[in-house]
Amino acid sequence: MELRLHVPTSLPKISTIVRAYNSMLGLALHRLAFRLLAILAPQWAVTRARRMFLTPPRYAFSEAELSALEEATLVTVPLLTGKLVAWRWVPRNAPLVVLVHGWGGRGAQLRGFVDPLLARGFAVMTYDAPGHGMTGGHVSSVVHLTQALESVLAETGPVAAVIGHSLGGAAAARVLTRGTHAQAAVLIAPPASLTWHSRNFAKLLGISEPLRYQMQRQIERHFGIEWKEFEADSALPRCPCPLLVVHDEDDRENAFQDAQRYARHWPGARLMRTEGLGHRRILHDKVTIARIADFVSHNTQP
Fold first, then answer.
1. CA separation (Å) from 20 to 14, 26, 214?
2. Among 251, 40, 53, 201, which Cα is nearest to 141's?
3. What are the b/e assignments for 106-116, b being 16+ CB within 10 Å?
4. What digits encode the pLDDT tens for the residues 202-233?
5. Residue 272 is inside which H or E element, if any?
6. Within 10 A of 229 (CB to CB), how many other CB atoms are there?
7. From the centroid of its chain, how far is CA 160?
């Protein structure tokens, strides 16, 4: 079943245009560097591509994000390589919903879900993945995001729901294939394939397919995984739970077809299509958030 929401678009802010211009200039320099390295030192090009692919962008926290986090209880979650910085709202005896951010994001990005979920009787927890936000570090990957969520769920025990955005959604799907107990799941704008995700990355930087494939193989050998394990077609949970996949038609980072792949291969999944929200504004749209919170409420038990 597919739901459809329409949200009118608005003109971009001047600051957004300036940031876009600076990004375009930096992108042109990266493309030039890869063009030269591919000819003069192809292995250096592969190493450079791998490092960039595993280095998430970092941004300063906004006042709105910090204000939202001040209302939560700060907690830490142990990892083999250190600890995660996490936040929790309301008492432990309420059914828990875990919010998972995506690549280059942080837990506070999903702050818009907190009050609607609290109003429906849930506790809420979010965290910054390795290499992101206040957890720190310089290297990350979908493997890091997957291990982080597994560590959180090992600490909390069974949860009412997991809500994951972008690559955090792909990580959540991967965790659920291993039999993690969640009564419901929501994937927002998830990428359906790491291979296609890396091809978009390579296309953006002007990296040839042979060099991109070498990068992929290096990363697979390093982590001891194959990227095909993260294909949406493989995301079949051992303990199927109700799934809602939410994706915007105008998402320029992960195509709407990615959501369709998840919905097609997950038993009983529902697909909600939005318009005019793109990849990130979908996290702040009150109508979309309310529909997601209602889905979680209707498909979980205290």
1. 10, 10, 30
2. 53
3. bbbbbbbbbeb
4. 998 889 999 999 999 999 999 999 998 888 88
5. strand 270-275
6. 15
7. 19
Q: CA-to-CA distance for 218 and 211, rounded, in angstroms? A: 11
pLDDT per residue as tens digits for the range 141-181: 999 999 999 999 999 999 999 999 999 999 999 998 887 78
- SS3 (DSSP) at 251: coil
Radius of gyration in angstroms for the set of CA atoms belonging to the chain, rounded to a whole number: 19
- Strands lying side by side in the sheet with 159-165: 2-6, 270-275, 243-248, 182-188, 159-165, 96-100, 123-128, 82-89, 73-79
- Please give the structure tokens belonging to residue 207: 């990296």
User: For residue 17, what is the domain's CATH number?
Assistant: 3.40.50.1820
User: Which pTM does this prediction carry?
Assistant: 0.88
Q: How many domains does the structure of the chain reveal? A: 1
Residue type for position 57? P
Q: Show the domain range for 87.
A: 2-298
Look at the chain and count its residues: 302
